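Chapter review. Work through the record for Phosphoribulokinase/uridine kinase domain-containing protein before attempting the end-of-chapter questions.
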Amino acid sequence: MNDSIEINDIIRKFYKPVDFSGDIFYFFSSYYSKFEKLVIGVEGASGSGKTIFTTDLATSLSKNKVVVISLDDYLIMNKEEMLLNGIETRYDWRTRDKKRFLEDIKTLRSGKNIKKPKQDFSLEAPSNEVEIIEPKPFIIIEGNLNIADVCDSIIFLFAPDDVLVERRFKRDIQKSMHNNSLRENARISLGFYHSMLETYAKEADFIFDTHNNLLYKKNSV
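Structure tokens for Phosphoribulokinase/uridine kinase domain-containing protein:
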């Protein structure tokens, strides 16, 4: 499988390597500690390690100062509804309640509670459940869509294509599907990532290779 050259071109043109002495989260906690309030976006492909990275980043910033928002909580379509609407992938904003998401982030920024939708990810479908989220100095938004317009800082995660496919396969193995089907779904998802999200890596302050543990900082940051 050939990796897209776009992410490598973006890094080569607009970014420089960062020496973080082995502890990526110590680096980010030190970098972001100079801000009193901040909305941080963690973007990347399926299998890039967004959820684990976001959890560890929140811990490094002190959990009592951080609220984490997942874009997947704003799903408004199951797979059948996506097919009926001609939508092939969740790299498409139409699968999320963007209006509600934007209103919630605005409300949290203003210091007020929100009622955030809460999804059952095992069903991969919208839910009527909600949870009360209190505002915190740091808001971390995790997802596979471009959210640069609502964030103060973006961290874009990536890995080699074969690694992304294998990670997604291992994550989805519990589903009642044939192994070949799982890997094929992962490859299809990867194609949508390259065509719909990867180009927005150039809007990130940082790009992090989660496989090789390499960090790049935008030249202008």
